[in-house]
Amino acid sequence: MTAAGENGKQAQRKAAMTVLANSDAAEIARCLDAVAAPAYETLREPENGLVMLRGRIGGDGAPFNLGEATVSRAAVRLSTGEVGFGYVLGRNRQKAQMIALCDALVQSDEFAGAVEEIVVAPLRAAMISERNRKAQETAATRVDFYTLVRGED
Fold first, then answer.
1. Cα–Cα distance between 148 and 53 in angstroms, integer?
2. Is the Cα torsion angle 50, 17, 134, 126 positive or negative in sign?
3. What is the CA radius of gyration of the chain?
4. Which of 48, 49, 51, 107 is nearest to 76 (CA)?
5. Taking a C-beta distance cutoff of 8 angstroms, is the pair 48, 72 a contact?
6. Model's pTM, two decimal places?
7. What's the Cα-to-Cα distance from 114 to each of 37, 43, 153, rounded to whole Å?
8. Which helix (H) or strand (E) holds 132?
9. pLDDT in tens, 110-141
10. Angle, vertex CA 75, rays to CA 106 and CA 32, nearest 5
11. What whole-number distance in Å separates Cα of residue 10 and Cα of residue 116?
12. Which of 6, 14, 3 is nearest to 85 (CA)?
């Protein structure tokens, strides 16, 4: 595969993971049920853990430990050999497992199109719709302030 093709595949994978991480677990499960996924084995059972969050004052200051966040992770391997990883903030192990399965399917030439069409595209549309709805609600409360200039010298 060429470098451009590999970069396109990675961009598609990244976009799919962004949508899946921001989607509801029940919606992912509903969409994923419609995909005829191949057999897969669990490489890493879904588990909960903590990650350290680091921050910087002003974006360029010295790094400091901000705190910890709970994450769930999982890893699966399809019968065709693709390996998928799923990480999600919070304690939703089932969601991490589904994201790992989708990650592996997106990497597969045989299933990538089906996952994009049946799972990722509807979730992306719902995510964009919700984002637009919230933006409209916020815009409705916008107040424009302006200053009148007096005509004195």
1. 47
2. negative
3. 21
4. 107
5. yes
6. 0.81
7. 10, 23, 70
8. helix 121-140
9. 999 999 999 999 999 999 999 999 999 999 89
10. 45
11. 14
12. 14
Q: What is the pLDDT of residue 78?
A: 95
The pLDDT value recorded for residue 6 is 74
- CA geometry: angle 50, 85, 124, nearest 5 deg: 100
- Read off the DSSP letter of residue 2: -
Q: How far apart are CA 70 and CA 76, in angstroms?
A: 21
Q: 126-149 burial by CB neighbour count: b if 16+ within 10 A, else e?
A: ebeeeeeeeeeeeeeeeeeeeeee
When pLDDT is averaged across residues 68-95 and rounded to a whole number, the result is: 95
**What confidence tens digit (pLDDT) does each residue in 5-61 have?**
678 889 999 999 999 999 999 999 999 999 988 899 999 999 999 999 999 988 788
Q: Which two tokens stand for residue 117?
A: 């069409």
Q: Which two tokens stand for residue 24?
A: 């509801």
**What does the block give as tokens for 12?**
């598609």
Tokens of 31: 């969409």
Calpha distance 106→110 (Å, rounded):
9
